[in-house]
Each structure stands twice: as structure tokens, then as C-alpha cells.
Design goal:
By secondary structure, the protein is an alpha/beta fold. About 25% of the residues lie in helices and about 35% in strands. The structure holds flavin-adenine dinucleotide.
Length: about 290
Amino acid sequence: REVQADGVVIATGAAARTLPGSEGLAGVHTLRTLDDARALRDELSRGGRLVVIGGGFIGAEVASTAYALGLDVTVVEAAPTPLAGALGETMGAIVSALHTDHGVRLECGVGVKGLSGEARVDAVLLEDGRGIPADIVVVGVGARPNVEWLEASGIALDNGVKCGADGRTSLAGVVAVGDCANWYDPRAGFHRRVEHWTGARERPDAAIAALLAGGAVEPGVPRPPYFWSDQYGVKIQFAGHAAGADSVTIEAGAADDRDVLAVYRRAGDPVAVLGMNQPRLFTRWRKQLAATAS
Ligand SMILES: Cc1cc2nc3c(=O)[nH]c(=O)nc-3n(C[C@H](O)[C@H](O)[C@H](O)COP(=O)(O)OP(=O)(O)OC[C@H]3O[C@@H](n4cnc5c(N)ncnc54)[C@H](O)[C@@H]3O)c2cc1C
């Protein structure tokens, strides 16, 4: 059918990336939807050996939960330091050390070549020739924007729907928000696709204002993106963009205690803040970051 509209909001989100060749192999999971979470919970509750492919936030949270349930857990990460992209190398190493603190094995700097098993997975095969026995595998290797359905529409696509600083797309009367939208960041001077709830909740205000105005509106300064993650009983909070920072300083707590407030700066200005079990101080810094941004 065809639905007539004066304005369209594209909010089709993203889908979990999969591992080629893993289709139809029992015991292999991705995590995006409620059904995914239920299927994974059912398997984890039976125990066994879990291998998590990908040491990002979703992989880390799954590892932490599985550890608490008593499973034998290994995390495999292709990059030399997990979370380096999101947090920078120094703080990425400190946060991901939460795995080894708890006896979860962390294999870094080695890629996954494939999976083995007949009907059900029995091992994860690494590029260095080793195989890690596995009863359950979680593939946490990121998400891809759900924009295939737009390919013939003529709308500009580039790592999602390409948008201006107010969510407008290359087609008049069409805006895009959330995980599928690659917004221009005027402060950074390039486009960014942000996969956080705060972005999905806050950006529609600007996009709808542009849609109702029927053209360009003065975009407000977006609040620095924010996310949190609970791992091994530690509350991790992050706001801003680590990329581009030229220094990171620990302002409170100690890295060894995994109880830290770290501030990222560029040319002396704070551009991001990371907290591990420092919710009050983090909130204060997050406000200051937003004030600096605006
Ligand atoms: C396991 C997990 C943990 C996360 N934890 C955090 C966290 O702690 N903090 C945080 O900030 N963010 C977190 N995120 C990210 C956060 O969930 C996303 O940023 C947010 O859901 C994006 O919202 P959205 O509406 O853009 O997309 P989605 O939530 O993906 O919603 C898009 C919807 O569009 C539908 N759809 C897709 N294609 C079509 C189509 N062609 N036609 C019609 N409908 C379609 C989909 O079915 C879906 O319902 C997490 C994500 C995952 C997967």
C-alpha cells in the first residue's frame, strides 16, 4: 500500500552485525531485540562455556552477566585494546581490565576466522590457528543502520541516512533520527552516527522543528552524547567524544581500584568525561561539558 504524507521521519534504527557463516548454527547469538535477549537468557541459564566475540559495551555486559551466572567466559577482541575507539587506549584498557579482574579470559589483538560445529557450535576458530571450545557464542561486533530499504529512493546514504545538523535529509520533507541517521556535527566539522538512547530521544526535537518549519532552522548545539554501562558491579558512565582529545587526566579516584573520574581535554577544554563508580562527580562534569559545548 501507499501512505500519503506531507512529512516523513525515518527512524528504522540499526541491526546487529552477524558473523558470515554462522547462520543456522545453534548456540550462536546476537543481541538487539527482546526476542534475542530471551533466547540468550534461556541458553545462559543452562551454563557452560561462553565465548563473546567483540569486547565492546554489549560484549562486556554479556560477559559480566554470564560471569555472575557462573559460566566459563572468554572475550575475544580483534583490536589490541578493547573500547579504544570509544574511550581511548588508556581508559579502554582500564575499563576492560574489569574482565581479567574477575577471571574472565580476554584474548586481544586476534581476529576470529570462523566457527566450528555441525548443527551446534563447538568452538571459535582464531586467525592465529587456535580454537576456543564453546557451548554458546555471542557475536557482539557492532550494528549496521537499517537503510537497505531506502537504496532505490534517491535519498543520500552514507553510513546511514546522511543528515544536516537539524536532521534534514537530501529529500525535502524527510528527516531521520536515531541509530539509522548520520547527522552533521558542526562543532566537529564532520558527520557522526551516534548509537545511544539520549541521541534517539533528544534529536527528534530538532528534526521535527525543521520538518514543521519546512526548511532550515538554526540547530541548537546538541548535548554531548551520553551512555552508561553496568559491568561486574561497576557503574561506567561516559559523555562526550574521546576522539580528538589530546589529554586524559584522572581527577578523582584511582585506576587500580576501578573507581575513577577521568576528564578528556582538547587544547585545555573538556571534551569528554568518564566515570567508574563516580555518579555524583560524573553528573557535575557532564553538566559542565554541556555548558562548554554550548
Ligand atoms: C543490547 C543493547 C544494549 C544497549 N544499551 C544501551 C545503553 O545502555 N545506553 C544507550 O544509550 N544505548 C544503548 N543501546 C543503544 C540503543 O538501544 C539505541 O541507540 C536505540 O535503541 C536507538 O533507537 P532507534 O529508535 O533509533 O532504533 P531502534 O531501537 O533500533 O528501533 C528501530 C525500529 O524500527 C523498526 N524497523 C526497522 N526497519 C524497518 C522498516 N523497513 N519498516 C518499518 N520498521 C522498521 C525496527 O523493527 C525497530 O523497532 C543498546 C543497544 C543494544 C542492542
